[in-house]
């Protein structure tokens, strides 16, 4: 690890703090993460590394400017970098909104184009082995003009892909898009939108896409949203999404439909709605179905009911039908959750989940979880979490368990011990092993609302993780990790 370069981010933090003190219109954030450890099965030895991401922002009247610097340092020089990751100048006044630099914009619900930022997510690909912040932005310009009834927006930019910051700008931004969007509020909050987008890849090959959307209230407490997108010169490429939401006498209702055909644009710059519930539970998040816009039909039903005593019952059912050649794969899931306070001092969650996922070769997958928070005093909470999962794969029984016990004190301190166990042969490091165990200690300290310090020691299990419809892979880790997040 090149320790001589460590003062660089110390200098950045010092400059930012000085700027913040000198001008109250300046602000910033910093995420600093230190690791000493390895990825079991991939590394021969443990090694230290540092990732840092600093953002400085300035606001005055209708002007906003910001820059973001990212850096990663380890003993492997081919993985290290210091990057001006983002820069933005924005002018917003009355009907106009102008942006130049790294921008986040989404067309419709993301069928044509979607930018995202998963807060706090630092990822590492086995192929690149360089840690980076997980986001996708556009580098270019956006012009938006808005009146009470009409919104017009034009974007021209190139889109970030998943390659590590050690690659060149040309390699990381191979998709160039030009788009024009119009949204019109035509009557009583009903909206009509039309979008046209040209996409050009690194080889100069271009395709045109378009979408139409309708949005508004219907039948009293209900509202609808429909979006149709397709290739203007390739009509067999399309994405159809529709949703109906409402609330009746304590019951929240959400029903969605999807039909996608060959609708991955470029390197994946679009993200049509997945219609799969985001799960915070460990065994369910790792088992989640990842939507495939190349060929997928399906729906999602989500219901929740709030009782008079405050208990909340949630039901979710999702189905996705994928075709590979002449073979059809049907994913289906049923999920029930009860959130309740059975006594004055105990808050509980119970969930039950059943699924079949042929893409992962998981048949008859049952998952069960018990979460409890015991209020010992106004400042002390005891937390217990138990998650169990079982499914069939090639006729064999696979079992996963996750057990956590923890303490929260005065909303400032927390400590927890997490034990996980699996006999999944896909996760075993040694073909002679029959199971694999993970044991990790997590601790956090929040001295104030601007600072948070997190600590991990031990071994943790990786796997898929999904947030806001975007899925990514978390790698296994064994060792020591600390993270300091601050706002100023």
Judged by helices, strands and strand pairing, the structural class is mainly beta
- Helix fraction, binned, reads under 10%
Number of strands: 30
Summarize model confidence as the mean pLDDT. Answer: 91
Poorly predicted regions are: 1-7
Treating each run of at least 4 consecutive H or I residues as one helix, how many helices? 3
The outline comes out as: globular
Radius of gyration: 24 Å
Largest sheet: 24 strands, antiparallel, barrel
Distance between the termini: 29 Å
Strand content: over 45%
Any key phrases for this structure?
single chain; mainly beta; 24-stranded antiparallel β-barrel; two-stranded antiparallel ribbon; 3 helices; about 65% strand
Describe this entry's structure for a reader.
By secondary structure, the chain is mainly beta. It has 3 helices and 30 strands. The protein is globular, with a radius of gyration of 24 Å.
